[in-house]
Amino acid sequence: MDSAMMALTAETRSMRLEIAGFQSQISGLDQRVATVETQVASWTDNGQELMHLRSKLTDLEDRSRRNNIRLMGLPEGIEGTDLTSFLRDTLPKLTDITFDPPLEFERVHRLGPKRQDGNGRSRSIIACLLRHGQARQLLQTARAQGPLKLGTTEIRLSADFSKETVDRRRAFLSLRPRLRHLDVKFGLFEPARMWITKNGVSRTFFDQEDLRTFLDKIQEQSHPMETTTLPFQDIRETPSETNHPEAIFNPERGTTMVPQPMGRDLERLAKSHDDRGQVLQAVAMYTQMSDRDKSRSHLKPTTAPI
């Protein structure tokens, strides 16, 4: 008994030492986790601050381009040796605007290096006007008249934005077909914000994902989709290819149809026999076939196994 008690005491002592070591390690891990959490919190704050600074930088860049207009489609070399004088004389004629005082430019240049071969599209022109009001007047007139005509050449005028703003505007414009489909009035305002009106309520969106989520809610409220299984006589009238749009959603019924996938031979059999039992028997026979027999059978499906 004494020897057994001594062995148990020694084992207990070693277990205590191991537990003490584990406690020390856990304390060290707690300190390391706390340090990591502090660093992650600081990185999150820095990331938010960085996003805020990036947004301010984009806004400053757009503001610095407020007096710029971008001309596209003007043929290379048509301006001769003085692009500034050419635009000063040509822009009033294109837009039928009499400017008082006359147009004045801080700088005018084409984008990119000059093409040596003379082929390809003409380079766009960036013109920085001295007066912001004249730049707005040119853009509003061009927007109202559409493409301007210089002889037989179409000239397009647009505002000049930073790359980030251009990407945001393109993302908003990609939602125009969906807005028209949902009968939503909309407008894209500078620099990149979408204004919409639905049922007399107006909203402004600065992010395309927020607008996309809002349109999803409108679509769910106006066109609730029901998932139904068509009866046998309707299945015979559906297309054999399950990826056909009418096989997924019928806008006239407002329902999503889920017809049973059938092969061409089974469709011909269903049309030639009014007895439903014969078709179901053929389906059961095909289901029980082995893969080798299915490959040789004339009941081979065209879309997916039954």
Order of helices and strands: HEHEEHEEHHEEEHEHHEHHH
Mean pLDDT: 76
Helix/strand/pairing class, anyone?
alpha+beta
Approximate helicity band: 40-55%
Description:
- By secondary structure, this protein is of the alpha+beta class.
- The chain is 52% helix and 16% strand.
- It is built from eleven helices and ten strands.
- It has helices at 2-64, 83-95, 132-145, 163-173, 176-181, 208-222, 232-235, 245-248, 264-272, 276-288, 291-296; strands spanning 68-72, 105-110, 125-129, 148-150, 153-159, 185-189, 193-198, 201-205, 226-228, 255-257.
- The strands form three sheets. Strands 2-3-1-5-4 form a five-stranded antiparallel sheet.
- The longest helix has 63 residues, at 2-64.
- The protein starts with a helix and ends in a 10-residue tail after the last helix.
Lay out the secondary structure:
Elements: H1 2-64, E1 68-72, H2 83-95, E2 105-110, E3 125-129, H3 132-145, E4 148-150, E5 153-159, H4 163-173, H5 176-181, E6 185-189, E7 193-198, E8 201-205, H6 208-222, E9 226-228, H7 232-235, H8 245-248, E10 255-257, H9 264-272, H10 276-288, H11 291-296
Key features of this structure:
single chain; 306 residues; alpha+beta; 5-stranded antiparallel beta sheet; 3-stranded antiparallel beta sheet; 10 strands; disordered C terminus; Transposase_22; L1 transposable element RRM domain-containing protein
